[in-house]
Amino acid sequence: MTARLLCGAAFTALMATQASADYTLHVLHINDMHSRIEPINAFGSTCSADDKAENKCFGGVARLYTKINELRDALTAAGENVIVLDAGDQFQGSLMYTTYKGAAEAEFMNAIGFDAMAVGNHEFDDGPEKLAEFVDVVEFPVISGNLDLSQSNLLNGKVDNHVVLEVGGEKIGIISALATDTVETSSPGPNVIFQDEIDSLAADVATLQAEGVTKIIALTHVGLPKDIDIAGAVAGVDAVVGGHSHTYLSSSDPARQGAYPTWVSQGDGTLVPVVQAGAYSKYLGHLELTFDDAGNLVYAAGDTIVLDASVEENPEIAARVAELGGPIEELKAQVVGTAAEMIEGDRTVCRAVECPMGNLVADAMLDRVRDQGVTIAIQNGGGLRASIDAGEITMGEVLTVLPFQNTLATFEATGQMIIDALENGVSQVEDGAGRFPQVAGLKYSWKASNEPGSRILDVMVADGDGWVPIDPATVYGVVTNDYMRNGGDGYRMFREGMNPYDFGPGLEMVLADYIAAMGGTYTPYIDGRIVRVE
Fold first, then answer.
1. What is the DSSP letter of 388?
2. Total-model pTM
């Protein structure tokens, strides 16, 4: 079934029935926190002292604690019903995760008082072990309905399909699903088996309805396009609270990426709101749902709330953040160079076109191993997690851009293997997939309107001071990161590479050393190495 966005007339009809409703639920929600425990700047990196002095900081757990408790307390005092949800990806993205491996995230989520969390793909970045440790520590259910965990001795019985919350005398069913390509984007291992998201959610709806639960929210980590499909296809779902695509939905901000909520109509005319709240704790979503006596959704509205300097940080939480951050402050503060201007590394850019951060990282990778006969570098756009603003570049900023502790990986590949890799890289650009290839020592053009598998138009490789067409039969030296070399983000062909070595220096140190070796100021650039043909 193809979902369609709700038209104005249908929206008006839904709103007109509000008077018959008798139960209202407020859903406060976040998604894709990515360990941004400390406040961030406008580029998603850790906020500097200068930014803080100029009131240019956003988010962070101390600010999130303040706003959630302010809203929850006020609504509860007014007799309203409130739940707090997280749509996944607490793990990975800052030195807080690199250092504490989920323990800090668990501590602050417990302090804030979440009611449920969906498993995100990055919860598997350190394998099932760290997710299991996290689930053991948190004081709320962590759920994912499309995971068959029967073969996992670590997670079986710890992550449930769904949960039923009792709020204001009513049962609220929370179901969940995780993107099935997590086997490519993270490290769930062979004992975590993925099932179709829509089929799984439909089965969980049927289970809850059989238990008499009539109010059901899908808390998902699949991305907005899939959320829209789910809202259109899964009968019995009253709302979808999502994550994974980092989409900023708003009912008031012209800079939004879509409406909050985004309305979807099912085949029988049932209307389902879909919401998401950006990423990195910059926003808190507030969705209001009203149901009639039969449990039918009759009203939904709300917005994302920006957590800027107008929201005061809770002093106790801020002090604890500072305590945890103490051991890593010295490392983060190290200056490795200067940027002449902002180095663009935003996901919406680096997952679709040539971007300055992609060029910088790929250039650094190739420079590190060029004396080993390597001539081509390929870096997945999804491995680049932030921009860097103009001025001093600190090690903290470098680690925010490259938080995954990936190592440099080299191997040999035929030209055909490289062409196949580029085809994989551009195959899911419509979905904002992280596999998009940023390159060095290589030029390619591709046509977005062609079918996946036939999008690469031509590929050129460096030859002295010039460029020549890639030869499918020639063997080239390639550098990438260990995640991609082992098949991550769909790069399965790299597993077949010859003479692989996955244990090079950390990618963050490669970048820091490269910037430092530039001596002085780095000027970001693009040079046409990736050409998108419409």
1. B
2. 0.81
